[in-house]
């Protein structure tokens, strides 16, 4: 029996290309695993009315963690049009499989390293080494949304919050509400993980990114938990920065930042910005970690125009496999993989189109695998 059991979800589009590439590396490392393929993505929405079939969820529950490629997602109306006509009467509504997996498996922490590999022509600077911790299941993405907003909800809100009164005369159809929900538990968890990571990896500071001067209640809760947590980690500084200023500072002085920590939406924004500083989507790996399960994925989408062309950069998927190896305590293999990625980038002989080269996805994977061996 293999040592590790991995749910293998390539999804669709370039998700399939980049996971094939990641497999070449894992094999070269001699990673002892059973890979269990699962159905997820657009094809299953169109033909079954469910982009994340129950059989996939059940299969995932039998595995230690999941490596995920990418999926195509579309707005509700477009999704409804592409559903197979015989399924129309059944009232299926499209949902994002990745958001559902995060919520179902309680993958509360999104971790995204943004490290500049020396010699990458896409680096903004060569001395950037940021790790973003983003709360993954709450905040503005918790899915608590209303449109139209029933009158009784507006009346209830106005009773509790005078600032809601100015909206009370709008017609229900002309109002939409998305609720930003923070729990103390999730706030404490995300800042604790950011600080523990900083301690383990000798990082000097953790920057909490919020907007507590405007979003007083939710932002204030995260910040107060950050201050309490920081007091338990002497030697690691807590920096507090507003999201808008953070975007500016990340472009101006990214090299001074080390660990960033934020709620769901601000974390989403700063992790994309940080990723772009070190080469963009082709390099942006991520881990979604819960107490009992984890999912690793490149952060790019399915890039339909490149699907099946064996053309895109597989580094983000390969580096996501590295995060999986670390999660499974295969630290030595993880280090070999990262060193191999570093060498391929530094040598600069085998590069995909986004780095100015003409190599294929598989060429890059084979080159990384060669250094792994
Ligand atoms: N987690 C996910 O699976 C995920 C994330 C984002 C978007 N999506 C979905 O993917 C589909 C396409 O979305 P999009 O076009 O906005 O974003 P995308 O990330 O798929 O691609 C945008 C562009 O970035 C470049 N790119 C992306 N990955 C690359 C790689 N590995 N190497 C080189 N270049 C790369 C390509 O030029 C591509 O056209 C949509 O349906 C969207 O909803 C899925």
Output the CATH homologous superfamily of the largest domain: Isopropylmalate Dehydrogenase
Q: What is the averaged pLDDT score?
A: 96
Specify the CATH class of the largest domain: Alpha Beta
For this structure, the CATH topology of the largest domain is: Isopropylmalate Dehydrogenase
State the strand order across the main sheet.
2-1-3-12-11-4-5-10-8-9
Structure class: alpha/beta
Shape assignment: globular
User: What's the total number of strands?
Assistant: 12
Whole-number tally of structural domains = 3
Give the N-terminus to C-terminus distance in angstroms.
23 Å
- Main beta sheet, described? 10 strands, mixed
Bound molecules: nicotinamide-adenine-dinucleotide
Beta strand %: 15-25%
Number of helices: 13
Structure description:
This protein is of the alpha/beta class. It folds into 3 domains: 1-106 and 294-373, Isopropylmalate Dehydrogenase, CATH 3.40.718.10; 124-140 and 182-277, Rossmann fold (3-Layer(aba) Sandwich); 145-178, no CATH class. The chain contains 13 helices and 12 strands. It has helices at residues 14-28, 42-48, 54-61, 76-82, 97-104, 151-160, 184-200, 216-230, 243-252, 264-277, 315-327, 331-347, 361-372; strands at 4-11, 33-37, 65-70, 109-115, 129-135, 145-146, 177-178, 205-210, 237-242, 259-262, 285-289, 294-298. The strands form 2 sheets. It has a 10-stranded mixed sheet, sandwiched between helices. A two-stranded antiparallel sheet has the order 6-7. Helix 1 (14-28) links the parallel strand 1 (4-11) and strand 2 (33-37). Helix 1 (14-28) packs across helix 11 and helix 1 (14-28) packs parallel to helix 13. The radius of gyration is 22 Å and the shape is globular. The mean pLDDT is 96.
